[in-house]
Design goal:
This is Leucyl aminopeptidase. The chain is an alpha/beta fold. It contains 12 helices and 22 strands. Strands 9, 10, 11, 12, 13, 16, 17, 18 and 20 form a 9-stranded mixed β-sheet that branches. α8 runs parallel beside α11 (about 420-430). The radius of gyration is 24 Å and the shape is elongated.
Length: about 475
């Protein structure tokens, strides 16, 4: 999709998208655009409403913004319009931005339009969305120049589309090797370096916690490392480390799941968010050095599966008692965090994972759980999330919770065995493997990375985290 700026639409024929701010249901002044008038009794710009009018050889599609629209609501509205009305975009299409439309909201609108081209039917024969066709141009009528805003918005949407696809693909397609290949190809395309360790290399390096989870599966585990270095790297430039959980399917291991296994292809959504963020950071050419790790493997049931009561080693050298094989995500993240801190020494570390049902029980499906002992980092992540509609909220990492991961037979255990404070004890476990890093944060996104919404009939990906991580890095 390309944007072409126009100065008038007097002779335009096709579909015109007209976002409008909310007036009032009893307003005496109708909403009007070039002779098309809409009474407030029919439509007055209320959030999540729209109105169609076919007149003067044009389909006028009025879009309600509400009184005080935010980034997420605008993105969602325009994604909805794009998805639900694609038959109307086979002809010329124009977008009219209202006066006073902020650049951030315009970014959300442009990004939403392209995101609306996504559908989960990857294995169904369907016609491509008009916006994806080569040469498609969106005419833009607005006061001001939004060319750079649109370009940025489309880059954001493309990264999200890739992330959505990775998470929604079935587990026999989106295998660890598939993710590794994706990272290699994306690195070549967007400009970051990718290194992948196979099973044998991981054995030689001592990534034992990662390998313990992977050993029950016939699929080759892949320890993916991505490095983005800006062209204008300076000594004072920040270095950010990211780690994403890449469990491409989670059976629970020998502590096999008794419910919800159908959706466990989504257990790599944290890793996918990191992959998408690396694409976007590189595509936007941000002024920061970023090193990202995605340990990718399956947690399967087989004759080599690791066992409850096993004691395994880790890359850090610490021993881990296995209480529950379904608490596997924290094991691969532990090796990812240890490898990152030891070999790259970033200034900031953020890990992201669909880690616990406990975080869902606490926050539902509204936000992710945030854990950090660094107050400044906490505020920065919260602000970045608020800015782009991917919200996170803090939970404590008090030392009192450390007892939940203390083991009598090893340095640490992977599960408290208690039905309470599950997200917190998981975060305390990860903290143990950060080597005391003073600017580390953990994001538990189990409730917001995959779920139900209006854009499909079944549970599907959200791409939560891609823009949050990118915005956080951009703001540093």
């Amino acid at each position: 999709m390309k944007i072409i700026t126009v100065h008038e639409l007097a002779d335009f024929k096709g579909t015109i998208l007209i976002p409008v701010f909310e007036t009032h249901v009893k307003s005496l002044v109708p909403i009007e655009f070039q002779g098309v008038s809409v009474s407030s009794k029919v439509f007055y710009g209320k959030k999540d409403t729209s109105y169609h009018s076919d007149k003067y050889d044009c389909l006028h599609l009025f879009i309600g913004l509400g009184k005080t629209p935010d980034y997420k609501s605008v993105f969602t509205m325009f994604r909805r319009i794009s998805l639900r009305n694609k038959e109307h975009f086979n002809t010329n299409t124009a977008l009219v931005l209202p006066d006073g439309f902020q650049a951030g909201l315009a970014e959300a609108a442009f990004s939403g339009l392209l995101a609306g081209t996504y559908e989960i039917g990857h294995f169904k024969k369907t016609d491509s969305h008009p916006f994806l066709r080569e040469g498609f141009e969106l005419a833009l009528l607005a006061k001001g120049n939004y060319t750079e805003t649109a370009d940025r918005a489309f880059r954001i949407a493309k990264a999200k589309l890739e992330t959505l696809r990775l998470v929604d693909l079935p587990p026999n397609v989106a295998t660890p090797q598939y993710l590794a290949k994706w990272a290699m190809e994306a690195g070549e395309k967007y400009g970051f370096k990718t290194t992948v360790f196979d099973r044998q290399t991981c054995v030689q390096l001592g990534l034992d916690a990662f390998l313990a989870v992977a050993q029950g599966s016939a699929r080759e585990p892949q320890f993916i490392i991505m490095e983005y270095t800006p062209d204008n790297l300076t000594n004072g430039m920040k270095h950010i480390g990211l780690v994403g959980k890449g469990i491409t399917f989670d059976t629970g291991g020998l502590n096999i799941k008794t419910a919800g296994m159908l959706h466990m292809k989504s257990d790599m959504a944290g890793g996918a968010a990191v992959l998408g963020a690396m694409q976007l950071v590189s595509d936007l050419k941000l002024d920061a050095k970023v090193t990202a790790i995605v340990p990718a493997c399956e947690n399967a049931v087989g004759n080599m599966s690791f066992l409850p009561a096993d004691v395994i080693r880790s890359y850090s050298g610490h021993s881990i008692e296995i209480i529950d094989t379904d608490a596997e995500g924290r094991l691969i993240l532990a090796d990812g965090l240890s490898y990152l801190t030891k070999n790259y020494k970033p200034d900031y570390i953020v890990d992201i994972a669909t880690l616990t049902g406990s975080s869902v029980a606490t926050f539902g499906y509204e936000c992710g759980a945030l854990f950090t002992n660094n107050e400044s980092l906490s505020k920065q992540l919260q602000q970045a999330g608020d800015d782009v509609g991917e919200r996170v909220w803090p939970l404590p990492l008090w030392e009192a919770y450390r007892q939940d991961i203390e083991s009598e037979v090893a340095d640490v255990k992977n599960f408290s065995g208690k039905p309470v404070a599950g997200a917190i004890s998981a975060a305390k476990f990860l903290e143990f493997f950060t080597a005391g890093h003073t600017a580390w944060a953990h994001l538990d996104v189990a409730g917001v990375a995959f779920g139900d919404d209006e854009f499909a009939k079944t549970k599907h990906a959200t791409a939560f985290g891609v823009q949050l991580l990118t915005k956080f890095i951009e703001n540093l």
